[in-house]
Write a structure and sequence with these properties.
The complex is a heterodimer of chains A (115) and B (114). Chain A is mostly beta strands. Chain A has no helices and 12 strands. Classes of the chains: A mainly beta (115), B mainly beta (114).
Chain lengths: 115, 114
């Protein structure tokens, strides 16, 4: 079955420290991968996406992610976080066999940046 | 100008009532979606329309009925509301075809059934 797993439900980190939010997927077909951010009481905003090509993708707000096909992972990283990065982060995939644009989401990771 | 807008943002209603949530997108996209976010923040697709045609209907109770009068609008009508329907409902849109394309989300409608 096709699925997405975010391994950490909460990640507390101090301001200016680096952070990694983990995402793994399960699929027998090709995938397209996304990270979305949800600030409190707001909708989802795209941080970055991997469709093809270079496995290291850069997104907005200094975030980047690396696609690792052998480990079926798409971890999100930022070298130095700010208080304003406190939010819910969702990893999502669409599968190559689907042309509907249907997103399968992970359970979400709450990033808590402390001063 | 808001790309994907939903109304209302908050909706509190009693069990058994019928309510609607409206969604409009001004991005020129052909595909629109409804997602449900539960109390644990888990997001799951409910419906998708492509150019007014229903293309995804996940196992959603018949009490939920989407309607797309044109490709820029996708409304969600819910009959006989139940306590378990309390959630945040997100509308989204993307370009036609959908393969690997970005979905743009609305701000969400927080539905509370009392």
């Amino acid at each position: 079955a096709q699925s997405v797993t975010q391994l950490d439900s909460q990640v507390p980190v101090f301001e200016e420290a680096p952070v990694e939010l983990r995402c793994n997927y399960s699929s027998s077909v090709s995938v397209y991968l996304f990270w979305y951010v949800q600030y409190p009481n707001q909708g989802l905003q795209l941080l970055l996406k991997y469709l093809s090509g270079s496995t290291l993708v850069k997104g907005i707000n200094g975030f980047e992610a690396e696609f690792n096909k052998s480990q079926t992972s798409f971890h999100l990283r930022k070298p130095s976080v700010h208080i304003s990065d406190t939010a819910e982060y969702f990893c999502a995939v669409t599968f190559g066999s689907s042309n509907t644009g249907k997103l399968i989401f992970g359970q979400g990771t709450t990033l808590q940046v402390k001063p | 100008d808001t790309a994907v807008s939903q109304t209302p943002k908050y909706l509190v209603t009693q069990m058994g009532n019928d309510k609607s949530i409206k969604c409009e997108q001004n991005l020129g996209h052909d595909t629109m979606y409804w997602y449900k976010q539960d109390s644990k923040k888990f997001l799951k697709i409910m419906f998708s329309y492509n150019n007014k045609e229903l293309i995804i209907n996940e196992t959603v109770p018949n009490r939920f009925s989407p309607k797309s009068p044109d490709k820029a609008h996708l409304n969600l009508h819910i009959n006989s509301l139940e306590l378990g329907d309390s959630a945040v409902y997100f509308c989204a849109s993307s370009q036609a075809g959908g393969i690997g394309t970005e979905a743009f989300f609305g701000q969400g409608t927080r539905l509370t059934v009392v």
